[in-house]
Specification:
Helices cover 26% and strands 42% of the residues. It has 138 residues and is of the alpha+beta class. A 6-stranded mixed beta sheet has the order 2-1-6-5-4-3. The N and C termini lie far apart (43 Å).
Length: 138
């Protein structure tokens, strides 16, 4: 079983072109909930495991070239906080927008809560404004 920091990194690597080396069932508990502040549609959302995987898949279709970098991780108790950056090229349709070919770079923070060696809950706060601005969506 991987340690919590490794699992948090693996979760974020699902957003990269490679998708990460661990399978979802190795990372997430069955009752996983992902809280997005904001989500890509501009709302606050609480996503089930299946909804979260669909969000990642939609993103990866819109951004087939995507690099995730882990900038900092802190572990305390059953929580791991990870500051990350993502650099991605918009090579596919995304949220109703045609591919732009533009590169977007943004940062965010994800806090993952663990239970029984798996991630049970995540809170994600990311720079949606910078993401949308780089792509010319706003």
């Amino acid at each position: 079983m991987a340690d919590p920091k490794t699992l948090s990194r693996a979760l974020l690597m699902r957003w990269s072109s490679e998708g990460g080396s661990l399978q979802p069932e190795e990372i997430f508990s069955d009752d996983y909930v992902n809280h997005q502040e904001p989500d890509a549609a501009g709302e606050l959302s609480d996503n089930t495991f299946e909804e979260y995987l669909a969000i990642v898949e939609t993103y990866r279709r819109g951004f087939p070239e995507s690099e995730v970098r882990i900038l900092l991780q802190v572990e305390e108790g059953d929580l791991v906080a990870t500051r990350f950056s993502i650099k991605a090229i918009n090579g596919g349709e995304y949220l109703g927008h045609a591919p732009t070919g533009k590169t977007a770079e943004w940062t965010g923070v994800e806090i993952d809560r663990f239970r029984d060696g798996k991630i049970v809950e995540s809170w994600v706060d990311w720079d949606k404004y910078r993401f949308m601005s780089c792509l010319g969506f706003i």
